[in-house]
Design brief:
This protein has 388 residues and is an alpha+beta fold. It is built from nine helices and 19 strands. The chain has two domains: 256 residues, 3-Layer(aba) Sandwich (Aminopeptidase), CATH 3.40.630.10; 121 residues, Alpha-Beta Plaits, CATH 3.30.70. It catalyses: N-succinyl-(2S,6S)-2,6-diaminopimelate + H2O = (2S,6S)-2,6-diaminopimelate + succinate.
Length: 388
């Protein structure tokens, strides 16, 4: 099938996006997504599209463009991609040079996920320039803060009635991701009694109590999770990722804290998972009745994605992708995306985009430029067929 999009066009858009730094401000060297947002807003204005600028935080706006459809008042198709990237520390290339070599474009965000955004912009541009009108409105949302607190996509939930289905841009190798894990991150604290280390029996070591907690996680919780894998995303997990305790080498510690990362699978409710963990650890024997455990409220809580392979958005996307690349897989992945938040409020969502997750966040991040152009063509097919 002949390609509609010239790869030169998607390459130029992607190069311009990568050359604009948009490292999430929560990371070292971060800057607001403002300049990328301004770029996207100008892009839509040039095409004569209706544009909405939603100030999520100071200098961090979501930009939403709308391509009108034949049925202008119907809920529309949402194409969403985030503008922020992770940090550039320890990269081995110039993160913003957007160097092209051997059919690849290198730079921070090239793969995750400015390639998806470039493909979406190129697809909409082609529709406008060729006077193509979709059956229903198509919204293109460039959002902020996916890499940390996903405040950008949460802002979209305020206008959820506009959307009947969503394609969320992330590197999937042009396959369709219909399921992914959620996450619960929280601190667990053990409390003991401080004492001089020369008289340890007068105290209760919070570190010793934490050993009991970690042993329970390793020997009881992990085997239980591994025994019930999901067919697409695999097993749930619970990992201890940080630990801190004690104040001096001659003091029995009365406090010890760990941070945990609990990956949930479709069928699990993240809030319920946290509550059950609280109950389980509160009943745990810590080796001394004077010791106690506190499971603090989550500082990150995200949900799973579990979209039916038979849903219209998945069927339309996979049909369009098959025309361009042949066999297309419906996959599950272990990481999270903005799609779970949209699905949570009843918007059927699928994750799709050029590039491989193996290149995301890497020291020499890159994306295959032919895939970016193919992604744009696939999106055009979905835009023109969805809602028929």
């Amino acid at each position: 099938m002949k390609n509609r999009i010239d790869a030169t066009r998607t390459t130029n858009i992607l190069r311009e996006l990568v050359q604009i730094p948009s490292v999430n401000p929560s990371f070292e060297g971060g800057v607001p997504e403002l300049e990328v947002a301004d770029y996207v807003e100008r892009f839509f204005h040039r095409l004569g599209l209706t544009v909405e600028r939603r100030e999520v935080k100071t200098d961090r706006p979501n930009i939403i463009g709308m391509l009108p459809g034949e049925r202008s008042h119907s809920p529309g198709l949402l194409l969403e991609a985030h503008m922020d990237t992770v940090q550039t520390i320890n990269m081995t290339i110039d993160p913003f040079a957007a160097v092209i070599e051997d059919g690849k474009l290198y730079g921070r965000g090239a793969c995750d996920t400015k390639a998806s955004l470039a493909a979406m912009l190129a697809a909409i541009e082609w529709c406008v320039e060729n006077d193509k009108v979709p059956h229903i409105p198509v919204y293109i949302a460039a959002t902020v803060d996916e890499e940390v607190h996903y405040q950008g996509v949460l802002d979209l939930l305020q206008i959820k009635e506009r959307f009947s289905g969503a394609i969320v841009g992330e590197p999937t190798g042009l396959h369709a991701v219909i399921a992914h894990k959620g996450v619960v991150r929280c601190e667990i604290e053990t409390v003991g009694i401080a004492a001089h280390s020369s008289r340890p029996s007068e105290g209760v070591s919070a570190i010793d109590a934490m050993v009991q907690v970690i042993t329970h996680i390793r020997e009881v919780v992990t085997p239980r999770l591994l025994a019930q894998p999901h067919p697409l995303v695999g097993a749930a997990s619970l990992s201890v990722t940080e630990i801190a305790g004690g104040i001096a080498p001659n003091t029995i510690p009365d406090r010890c804290r760990i941070k945990i990362d609990r990956r949930t699978i479709p069928g699990e409710d993240s809030e319920q998972v946290w509550r059950e963990l609280c109950d389980e650890l509160n009943k745990l024997e810590l080796g001394d009745d004077r010791a106690s455990v506190i499971v603090h409220p989550p500082f990150v809580l995200d949900y799973t994605l579990d979209t039916s392979a038979d849903s219209d958005i998945v069927q339309q996307l996979t049909k369009a992708a098959c025309k361009r690349i042949g066999e297309v897989h419906t996959l599950g992945v272990p990481y999270g995306t903005d799609a779970s938040k949209l699905a949570m409020v009843g918007i059927p969502s699928v994750v799709f985009g050029p590039g491989s997750i193996d290149q995301a966040h890497t020291e020499d991040e890159w994306v295959d430029l032919e895939q970016v152009a193919l992604a744009a063509d696939i999106l055009i097919d979905v835009i023109l067929s969805y809602g028929a």
